[in-house]
């Protein structure tokens, strides 16, 4: 799948045309996509990916035709599968569902002949909306940290579809710095998410 997406990005980039990106311009966007989320927790983790959904809005301020800063506000389904939870002195295998309101703030470097390719990088903060597990259908929000902090990296390409509208496809990866578990006494559990997004800029 990642190889297919990369090939698609290259093909789409061949269809791009010049589009105005001038100092002081603000570009708004809407986006939706697929999340593949898991966690890192040392060498002994057996966690697997949880498939999820994301959707949000963005604003991109241009300092020049090459540099801009973008802020996003996304609903993100994260978590992980094949985790463990203890109930009634028994340990069960379960899937953890963590939903966040994620706020990345990223620097964008625009490149290519028409400046329609871009790399983005910057910090994000995820505000926990809900936390549950599937084996016992328990609400676990009180046991998880209310904020997840980390780094967001990505690459994308924008395709002009009209004078003021561009379609985009973007690949992103997020790595958490903070422990997801509140007052955790064991291995530090950090989030790790890859996503594929599509959307429109105006």
TrEMBL record:
Source species, domain of life: Bacteria
Signal peptide: 1-20
InterPro entries: Beta-barrel_OMP_2, OMP/PagP_B-barrel
Pfam family, one: OMP_b-brl_2
Domain called Outer membrane protein beta-barrel: residue spans: 19-181
Keywords assigned: Signal
Gene3D superfamilies reported in the protein's UniProt record: 2.40.160.20
Protein name per the record: Outer membrane protein beta-barrel domain-containing protein
């Amino acid at each position: 799948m990642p190889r297919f997406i990369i090939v698609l990005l290259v093909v789409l980039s061949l269809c791009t045309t010049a589009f105005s990106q001038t100092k002081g311009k603000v570009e708004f966007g809407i986006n939706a996509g697929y999340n593949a989320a898991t966690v890192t927790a040392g060498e002994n983790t057996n966690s697997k990916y949880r498939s999820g959904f994301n959707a949000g809005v963005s604003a991109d301020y241009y300092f020049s035709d090459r540099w801009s800063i973008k802020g996003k506000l996304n609903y993100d389904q994260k978590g992980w599968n094949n985790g463990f939870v203890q109930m009634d002195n028994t340990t069960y295998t379960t899937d953890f569902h963590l939903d966040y309101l994620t706020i990345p703030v990223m620097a964008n470097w625009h490149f290519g002949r028409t400046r329609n390719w871009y790399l983005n990088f910057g910090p994000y903060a995820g505000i926990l909306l809900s936390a549950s597990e599937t084996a016992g259908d328990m609400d676990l929000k009180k046991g998880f940290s209310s904020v997840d902090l980390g780094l967001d990296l990505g690459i994308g390409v924008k395709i002009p579809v009209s004078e003021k509208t561009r379609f985009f496809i973007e690949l992103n990866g997020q790595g958490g710095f903070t422990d997801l578990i509140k007052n955790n006494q064991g291995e530090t559990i950090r989030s790790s998410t890859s996503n594929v997004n599509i959307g429109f800029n105006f």
